Amino acid sequence: MVDGARCRGCGRCTHLCKRDAFAMELRQPRIVKNALRRIDNGLTELMK
Ligand code: SF4
């Protein structure tokens, strides 16, 4: 059980649950998203 008054939601404890009952969705940083988009666009061009 997590003490909601103390938890900061950092997600560092998510690996501790053996039943996968705790998960955290992380947002992709914009720089990563843009890099992946450029790679995807490059691959699309190569496949033409
Ligand atoms: S490790 Fe992070 S998410 Fe887990 S209980 Fe502590 S503050 Fe909350």
Descriptive account of the structure:
With 48 residues, the protein is an all-alpha fold. The chain contains one helix and no strands. It is elongated and about 55 Å long. It starts with 29 loop residues before the first helix and ends with a helix. The mean pLDDT is 85. Bound molecules: iron/sulfur cluster. The site of iron/sulfur cluster has 8 residues, from loops.
Ordered list of secondary-structure elements with their pairings:
Blueprint: H1 30-46
Low-confidence stretches: none
Shape: elongated
Give me the strand/helix succession: H
Number of strand segments: 0
Structure ligands: iron/sulfur cluster
- Mean pLDDT level: 85
Percent range for β-strand residues: under 5%
Largest sheet: none
Global Rg: 18 Å
Binned, the helix content reads: 25-40%
Distance N to C terminus: 53 Å
Write a brief caption for the model.
The protein is mainly α.
Name the descriptors.
48 residues; mainly alpha; 0% strand; binds iron/sulfur cluster
